[in-house]
Amino acid sequence: MNNMPFVISKVADSVFGIALWDSSWNSYNNCYVINREGKTLLLDCGKREQSNQLVEALREINVHPDDVDVFIATHGHIDHIGATATFRRAAKWIHADDWDRLSEEQTSEFNKLDSDIGVMYGLSFLRVGHHTNGSIAIYDVNTRCLFCGDYICFFGAKLVDNSLVTFGNDLRKKYHAFVMAWSQSPENRNKYHYESFACGLKVISSFKEAIFLATGHGPILHNNIIDFINELISINN
Question: Which pLDDT belongs to residue 1?
């Protein structure tokens, strides 16, 4: 079934992926819980109307909303930051280039990431600047998980055996074909900012040891991550 309220998968010893079913889009919106440096971190949180789903999913991994110490947005779209009010104790972060995507209420809760590169709470981040201007990729060197938000994602893709983690050979092939077609269309290159996307690929390829690609929607890819990224880079070379 692909319409469960949520799916939880353990990605690594200190990382859980939570996929919240969104019936309006027929897709999963992904969130990630990380235990790092004695703190509980949450990356992305789904839409506001998915708050109860997320709280229930967190309960299954023994996390209460008030246990969340830090919230980091991969970018400022509402399906990634809509439920932030649920986490009253959390220090909340978003890149400065997506600050204008916050609601008036949220601007009083959030802190700005003013740098395009840095380390916070033991996680490295880089601004990729595609999908939204403030989109960031986050890398956990301990688990070798690369969290990329919607910069690369598999919107609407089915989950195999209700698990988020997969090698995803078919997904890789389809995404490669999608990027190939995009690169060969002058109209779409301009309309959807292909050059910015291609630059972002080179940025995240610096995380050469990554073994998980944790996306904003749909499955998480496991193994040969940089090979996959480099294949996408080679399309434009």
Answer: 43
The full length of the chain comes to 237
Detail the DSSP E strand segments found in 86-162: 91-95, 110-113, 117-120, 123-127, 136-140, 145-149
SS3 content of the chain, % helix, strand, coil (to 5): 30, 30, 40
Amino acid letter at 58? L
Contact 18, 34 (CB under 8 A): no
Residue 117 has pLDDT above 60, yes or no: yes
Q: Tokens 């998480």 appear where? A: 220
> For the segment 8-53, what is each residue's pLDDT rounded down to a tens digit?
999 999 999 999 999 999 999 999 999 988 999 999 999 999 999 9
d(CA 79, CA 234): 31
Spatial distance between the Cα atoms of 71 and 80, rounded to a whole number of angstroms: 11
Considering only CA atoms, which of 217, 60, 232 is closest in space to residue 148? 217
The pLDDT value recorded for residue 236 is 79
Helix (H) or strand (E) run with residue 224 in it: none
- Confidence at residue 59, expressed as pLDDT on a 0 to 100 scale: 98
Is residue 139 within 8 A of residue 147, CB to CB? The reply is yes
Alpha helices in 33-157 (DSSP H): 51-60, 78-81, 104-107
Residue 3 to residue 155: CA distance in whole angstroms = 14
- Helix-helix angle 169-183:225-234, to 10 degrees: 20
